[in-house]
Amino acid sequence: MIKIGISSCFMYSNPKRIVFGPKSLSYIENDMARYVTTQDVLPVLIPDVAEPYLTSILQQLDGVVLQGGSDLAPESYGESPIGKWKGDAYRDRYELKILDFAIQQSLPVLGICRGFQLMNVYFGGTLYQDISTQLPKAILHRSAEDYDQLHHAIRFEENNFLQTMYADIPNPQVNTVHHQAIKKLGSDLNIYARSEDGLIEAFGYSKEPEGKVFGVQWHPEFSPTLAGLVIPADRIYRRFLDYARKQYDLRQTNQIVTP
């Protein structure tokens, strides 16, 4: 089976939590598990373990999905917090190691929301720590009440695979569940889409084929909530899986021992 690694979300020690209160937890959100799982795919939650063991696990993967969750820490891109948004520097370090391995080994990567922002930071970019504070004229990108029912229009940039993939949709919409956004774009990243207020919503790594290493600011795994209103999410994942299958075939070939 094709093995797709999914970076963990973390929940840290909390004495007020009745179950596992003093312990740290690694988890996957259920919509993400359902999105990644298909007939020929084994989703693998990448554990928080010592680096030599982590490397051994990553060597068995055919692709990596960086899931959403907590904010990135401003220190991870050379800034100090401007307010209450401290982020999760520990998770940043964990995921940056995963992403670095994936890039160095030419693995397919799909970054979603936080994962999209982490990719930008990995390539030297920066973030707006809070859209409403730093860009007060921007549209609403996050609502705690509406959550994955909030959506907005996006505009695909010319001549990229997302524009071609969704050419049949005249007014593409995506969900929006983020209060941070790309400020300075990282090196070697090509912009694929923007929101109606100009914020970057999708990009890809220019040193790999389009659709092999890319990220989106929206949550494709949440799309069933707004089925028919937002762009079909399966198209993005199928493109990513095409490259994961090629990686699987390559991994199987390299494991063949000749006499």
Automatic annotation (TrEMBL):
Keywords tagged on the record: Hydrolase
Membrane-spanning segments: none
GO cellular component annotations of the record: cytosol
Signal peptide stretch: none
GO MF term list: hydrolase activity, acting on carbon-nitrogen (but not peptide) bonds, in linear amides
InterPro entries: Class_I_gatase-like, Peptidase_C26, PuuD-like
Superkingdom of origin organism: Bacteria
Pfam families, A to Z: Peptidase_C26
Alphabetized PROSITE patterns for the sequence: GATASE_TYPE_1
Protein name as annotated: Gamma-glutamyl-gamma-aminobutyrate hydrolase family protein
